[in-house]
Amino acid sequence: MKISLVQLIIAIIFLGASWAGDLSAQDLLSRRVTLEVENKRIKNVLAEIGKQAGVKFSYSPQVVNTSRNLVSVRAEKEPLKSVLEKVLGSQNIRYEIIGKQIVLSKPSGGPQSLNNLQIERSPSVDRNVTGNVTDEKGEGMPGVSVLIKGTQKGTTTDLDGKFTMELPDGPVVLVVSFVGYTSQEIEVLNQSGVNVTLQPENKYLEEIVVVGYGTQKKVNLTGSVSVINSEDLIKRPVGQTSAALQGAVPGLTITQKSGQPGRDGGTMRIRGVGTTGDSNPLVIVDGVESNINNIDPNEIESISVLKDASSAAIYGSRAANGVILITTKRGSEKGFSVNYNMYTGWQSPTDMPEIVNGLDHMNLINEAYTNTGRSPLYSQQAIQEYTAGRQTDPDRFPDTDWQKLSLTEKGFMQSHYVGVTGGTDRVKVLGSLSYLNQDGIIPNTNFKRYNLRINTDAKITDKFSTSMDIFLRRTDLTEPSAGTGYIFHWMRRIPANQAGVLSTGEYGEGWNGDHPLARAKDGGLNRENAISSIINLNLKYTPTSWLTANVFYAPKFNLPHTKSFSNTIQTYRWDGSPSYAIPTRNSLSEQMSREWYNNLRATLAVDKLFGDAHKFDALLGFQQEDQRNNWISAYREVFLLPDYQEINSGNRENERTGGSAEHWSLQSFFGRVNYNYKEKYLFEANARYDGSSRFAKGNKYAVFPSFSAGWRIIEEPFMSSLSKVVTDLKLRASWG
């Protein structure tokens, strides 16, 4: 028989492929496994083997009965092949290695020895499978996603909930998902058709809530905690994140005292005023104390508001007014994605008082004087001259709308956010850049904010993982040096019969030299700039599934800079002669600060389930914080060149300088214990031992405890008839 060169090459290729496949399976089966279990469910045993050997098991419920199949195995660094014989041999289950996946099945010819089991391989051939997806009412669901697990290959259902797709030969797992419904994984063996029924997703029962130094299921909370998701925040076009919380949480009140760009943040109060000093709640962003207005709402994943002592006591002395926990978005292993969000618009006053014109003002003033027994301020002749001269000589007889004159800007604002996420099962990264530019309705009022965030998560080994977050922020605030309060005060106080702007373009007298428009446009500017950064470094070690250790370090740096120049404004009488020059001397004040903050924390967490009923969680932690602030300031007057606004260009006669520093530290030990029985009876205890450098010796340390308990009545058998109507019913009590 003659063999051509082509036939020889083909034979060598197939021989090599077969040899490589056998070698790969041999390498997999030689991996070492250590196991010691007794009367454990085979499902849990297979999961532990897969974790140690780095393999995945695929099987159907018909092959492995997870509720009945119990095994006892003891192996000390034995090959995977030997361990599989011990686990599967007594269960009459065969296995086949496909890549890094072990497929389990029942032998068709009765019990066989795994050693003598011969696996007949067939070439991978695509086959057609049809299916039908229905909801809980049995109606077809259109637009349902059907994907082959671990791939991007898939399809969607038609208007009747039906689908057809090609599957590779052999066992395949389909992932069936739809928004608002619980996803299902369906194993397809040799059947040509599948029927799937999706059930509505009860998010409340499975919702995870961020609490102090950890997370809990919402249904198991015994403290008062409210949660806000990012979708609720980004819909609100506001300049400051605190304003976006208005009306979002019961018990949290937000009061805005100003609409000025950069100063329109809200004053937050959780269940009223809790202390005589600073009544603001403690704000924690990714584990670091921060200002809620420092971050863009688009960066936020969720916000938890701890409203009572039982939930907030773990934060100690600073939690007297409640705690707001903010978690930012992180990368995803689902692949690369880009998110862009923007809004733009104009702001205008919503409630403007109606101001009387010049003639009405004169008549009403005279009436007020007469009612108090005095002579009228304006004679009848003066009123007649004003009435006749308003149209012909507006400089001498002005009728000024001071509100309209001062509020000349449109209040244009724009916000842009770009977020990029990507990653694998080992590394996940999120990078975001946001920009806010907000103009005011008063001249020379503006606020700009630039945020850059990079959140990175890395899985070093199965037990070690780490994360590093970098946050950079810059803000620029511009306002008249006299302040917006001055502008609003005088534009509503100066009568309409006082000149605002003369026909020559010069400023009128205003009110004895006080002129809101002049001070806003030409009275000098106050500029506040700040550059800040936060770095989060976190190392996580999980030696077992129920024990986790964390070490966390987060330095914070802030460089605020304030520069305020007050310029002299010259006003003029109606005939063009100078009247007032306020202030008599121009001046410049400047201040620079440097703030450095350290936050070191270590925690040890236990999360253990005993049997199927007793759930025990415990947390122990240590935290060390310290901050040092330094500032210097300078002041000079009489700047001959007002456009050159630097300290050295001013007169040294009345110069002033200043500077100071402060330093504080806080050392704390904290802990928490949680217990629940079948998620029906709940108990939690918290405590924090705080020591502050701000107090005298002997009074530095104090303990802040709390206790809470809950009873989920809905889980009782006598409530089963109401379970479809009442989703949750819980009785709880707390002290702290």
Helix content: 10-25%
Kindly report the average pLDDT value. Answer: 86
Distance between the termini: 93 Å
- As a whole number of angstroms, the C-alpha radius of gyration is 36 Å
- Alpha plus pi helix count: 12
Structural class: mainly beta
Hey, roughly how much beta strand do the residues contain? 35-45%
Give me the count of strands: 37
Low-confidence stretches: 1-23, 109-125
Major beta sheet summary: 14 strands, antiparallel
Query: Looking at the structure, what is the overall shape?
Result: elongated
Q: How does this structure look, described?
A:
The structure is a single chain. This protein starts with a helix and ends with a strand. Strand 35 (681-692) and strand 36 (701-712) form a beta hairpin. It is 15% helix and 45% strand. With 736 residues, the chain is mainly β.
